[in-house]
Amino acid sequence: MERRAALFLVLALVKISCCCLDPPAAYRFTGAVCRLTYPAAVVLNEKTTEVIQAAFQHAKYPSVQGERSIGFGTVKYGFHDLEIHNLSIGKSQFELKENVGIGIAISNVYAVFKGTINYGYGSWLLSLNQSVDFEVESQIDLVINPKLYCGKGKVAADTSDCYLTFHKLKLLLQGDREPGWMKKMFTDIVTFTVKLVVKSQICKEINSVANILADFIQEQAEQFLSDGGIGVDISVTSSPVIKSNYIESYHKGLVTFSNETSDLSNSVFHPSQLSESRMLYFWFSDGLLDPLLGAVHNDGRFVRSISATELTDLFQTELSTARPELLSKWLSSEGPVLKARSVSVPHLWTTTQGTSVRAVAGVQLLLNGQEMPVLYFETDVTVVVNASYAEKKLILKATAERISITKVSSSEGAIEMEDSLRAYLQEAVEKMGIPKVLSYLEVELTSLMDEQGLNLFDIFNPEVVPQDGYVMVQLDFGFPQHLLVEFLKRTLD
Predict the structure, then answer these.
(1) Average pLDDT for residues 411-431, to the nearest whole number?
(2) How far apart are CA 481 and CA 493, in angstroms?
(3) pTM over 0.90
């Protein structure tokens, strides 16, 4: 009994701490994975200069006061209201350092800092105090070596390894480029202080911006996977892994709905399942997709009504089985409406053939607004679905593996020719029902993805690759300027 209690305690502790495990230990708790390869990092690096500009412009430079003894007197100084002007950045280079971090080198950053300075010189012979406007011309190279880690369930960045090299730092008082001996002496004294202030604040702001960016990207991803009352927890299960050719992050992928959270502790993930030939890879476990499908069902979303011309067109489909006369009579009556809904929680599993879905659907045929259906039947269906994405639209193709009409009833009593009706309905489900459901899903899911901004990305040759127990999405992309603009606005607010 004591051993069993100890085992439960160990398992509980593992679940509590599984958000920050070592990568191999985290694999079994991982429902979603993102791998960003070196070519993708090249695209993102093109946007680095704009992020660094935001860091420079957003930095708050503190007022500084000090004094220094020189000869027979003391120089006192203080400057405040420091602002940045005329910022320009040369180029950015980066390197993925395996098991270490990311190396970023920003060269030829030119900036002019402006503000007000108070300075004075006091001795037994001379006393001088003055307040003047000043400018600091600077030309800087910036080297940052960010390290990624697991912080409070999210990917966080540590950019404390940050260096600024000043190729030029010149303090000008009231624009005086030929200062007298007093101003020259003063500028030489405070130049070192200015370097320390600029370096401290820029590196601090870069660390802040890096973490804001990390949070922003993860919030966008979580928002993309969530809708209404259905959410997906994509907290990280481990610190990101950095290789020379890619960066990879591991996420829980737990579905939340109606105060309940799914459980995942048997994921089949292994890094060998992903390659490095495409820019971006997303890996989704069946342990994420199946509960997500169940949450959609429990939210009452698998319901559809078909009437009028749409219903007439649907039953124009040619079938090999003859339509029973009674059904034809009902369909030709005034105001027929067909209502279909998911009766029980559907289930999903993936193999190399595609994603199999088993669902039980209930179908009602109502006439002229009647509450009681003239026909009700249930069908147990298993289909294998393959998905693709082209021209900013989701495309679904399905093959029926199993169709069974499990229940048939009518408000008009016993149904004549029930066997022939079952045969007709079974073929109708395969050739009319399944394609119709897929057409609805294609439109609805495409619309949902567009609402989350997917259509604003430049996506090239996306592939959805089903495997045993998971689905892999691989693609190339162009980073959308709108997303960067939105992030920078948020950063500068």
Answers:
(1) 82
(2) 18
(3) no
